[in-house]
What we know:
By secondary structure, this protein is of the alpha/beta class.
Amino acid sequence: xxxxxxxxxxxxxxxxxxxxxxxxxxxxxxxxxxxxxxxxxxxxxxxxxxxxxxxxxxxxxxxxxxxxxxxxxxxxxxxxxxxxxxxxxxxxxxxxxxxxxxxxxxxxxxxxxxxxxxxxxxxxxxxxxxxxxxxxxxxxxxxxxxxxxxxxxxxxxxxxxxxxxxxxxxxxxxxxxxxxxxxxxxxxxxxxxxxxxxxxxxxxxxxxxxxxxxxxxxxxxxxxxxxxxxxxxxxxxxxxxxxxxxxxxxxxxxxxxxxxxxxxxxxxx
Length: 269
């Protein structure tokens, strides 16, 4: 590989430099330094309310940081002119926790929407692209279905198809397997792995599902105490001695109080 190609391969697609995020000048996370490189699947982890979804909103252009700088594809996301920011964001795709499909439209029309709104492609090409993408997510033959008649897992797959239809360089996924039974969630994980293989896309996934983390992630970034408390491979985080990280990965419950233990004992048959 040439020196230039090596440098480009090392260039982060997403970078946070001293970023703080929150609402109404009240930070949820502070002093976040984070780099995500091409081809990675990075899981953003942490307990409820730790700020991982808030950070995702900032990375996707929906919530300006309270401090610091967010770089997307080498450009300062909140410093560039509005139109340039839109052009950057068009090189990304986002699948929201709630699938955000339009119930009044067919699956085909939902997935085709970004192509119809943002490109000048002929309708015949659009429909072929939609058909192929639905095939990739396991929804072949469901083009004319209404989202209201589909299962939760099927709607999640349709939302992933729509988020990926413009062939983004980066995909942001917020809790893609939340609320799904283990077998359906495993299918979503498999879809995300196929996306990286077929589309060469970098994936940033907010999740708290341990099985998904182990299955899909090359790297995990865990938030706690208002900042990053761990960043590394799954094996590294599994063996981390930080109490919050250890308890998350090993699901250690709080020790019962004496009264709770007594109540539990007295309920024994």
